[in-house]
Amino acid sequence: MKTSEIKFKIDLDNQNIPHSIKWLATDSQHNELKECKSMQISLWDIVEKTTYNIHLWTKDITTDEMHSQFFQTLLSFADSYQKATGNPFVKEEMQKFANDLAAKTAEWEEGRQTTKW
Length: 117
What we know:
117 residues; alpha+beta; three-stranded antiparallel beta sheet; 5 strands; globular
């Protein structure tokens, strides 16, 4: 059996807010820590039958970048869920939902200055 590892390095400021997030996976084509501005990890606890989530982002991620990651993640989850379960509706329904939410988000953002989280 093969073992793979994913490593995260989170540098925090004096208020414990992420200053930088870096990651490395043993199966990755990269040999060094790779920088990112945010991460979302979802873990299923088989004993408690619940999901644990880790959501971190750096101070320099923009609202637009956060929107992009959020919508791409929604669609990616739908793809994974469809592949794992065979659910024939999830991908199309999630795309409709994401498109509707993206339109509402764009309308809400209209006139606002892009800010950092």
